[in-house]
Amino acid sequence: MESENRKEPWFNNTFKKRCSNLEVNSSNCRAYCDIMKYPLFLMRIVGLFHRKNDKWYYKAYTLSVIVILWLSFVRLFSLFEFWYGGSEVLSAKLVYKIVFILWCFVTVTSGTIFFINQEKHSRENQLIHEFSYYLDKYSNKKIKILKRKILFYFLIGIFASGFNSINGIISLFGPDYFYEAFYSFLAPFHKVTWSRQNIPYKILNNILLSYYSFIWMITMCYYLAHCEIILFIIKSFNHEFRELVNNHILVSQKTINESVYEVEDNFDELRKKHLKICKITQQMNKCYQEFVGFTLIIYVTIVLMFLYIMTDWNGNCIQGIMAILYPFWVVSGLIIIILTVIFGARVQEHSSNILEDLLQINVAEFTNSLCFKINIMINKLTHGVPYLTAFGIININKEFILTVRY
Fold first, then answer.
1. I want to staple 185 with a disulfide (CB 3.0 to 4.6 A). Which of 61, 205, 326, 406 is the partner?
2. DSSP tag of 258
């Protein structure tokens, strides 16, 4: 017996270590892998997803995509005239160059954040395993509804990415009338005649543009998918909690059919579950706070700049393919901003939804122990509900939406 007791702490420590390094696969993340099967496959193709313990060539591919896109981004600074001894005048063309560079920056930054999340302390793996712990407990019917929602987001993202990529092909391989749309991708040789005639060079840049386009949308779809998953878990918990309050009669008007101690145990179990769900939200915020921050700041800037360009009614900047692309980019930017804020606010709102149910409980009818636990939970919901944030500084909630609006 003594030898078994000595082994127990060692076993616990080893088990915890192994649990923290669990890989995302169908055996230990059944429900999550079923929901995200096709999205994760798509993310692997574009270099947005890898496991920390993957073979070297998987990680090399992901890292290569990030490095190549950063190098591609850096070359875009050659678009500015000061490299050639000229000077820039504030114009729609200059603003478009800035917008193009900002778009590439936010895209490659998002991809880099995802790579770091998957590498640094397996931050994202921990989040996924927390999701799976709860998702595995729900019926297939509920999981299928969640899966359809997430697949819908990714299908919209694929359509938008494909639309942007096809326009890039039309711009670089089509007539001169369309050339202005994506000529920036030929930098640093955009002013040289051969770059417009060199087929391999244009193919290479169209491939890069396709990577940018798909990473642009898929990172946002992945964030929304995780928001949907945490919302699904929170809503399911809220339903379970309300069943305890209403059916197991914590409100004074009805008769208690169970012993007070049994009710207290059930309440305490749900209270602890709520704390765990709060920790999942905190873990999700650690993964995405930089992503949310860069998304909001840069897309607000991009949308305002596009609106400035579109007010140039001389016809210099809104001809041909640009008459389609400018509205498409403005609408895409606005949708991304709105979805980022609304989903963040929904997570906070649903996390504190059960506060009203708690306040209905007549604490005078129960033991001091249960009253104490109820008060702890009320305090947590009033002052300690975790938020999704921008850079860990700005809480994304209804108050934030109202502040931005006014």
1. 205
2. S
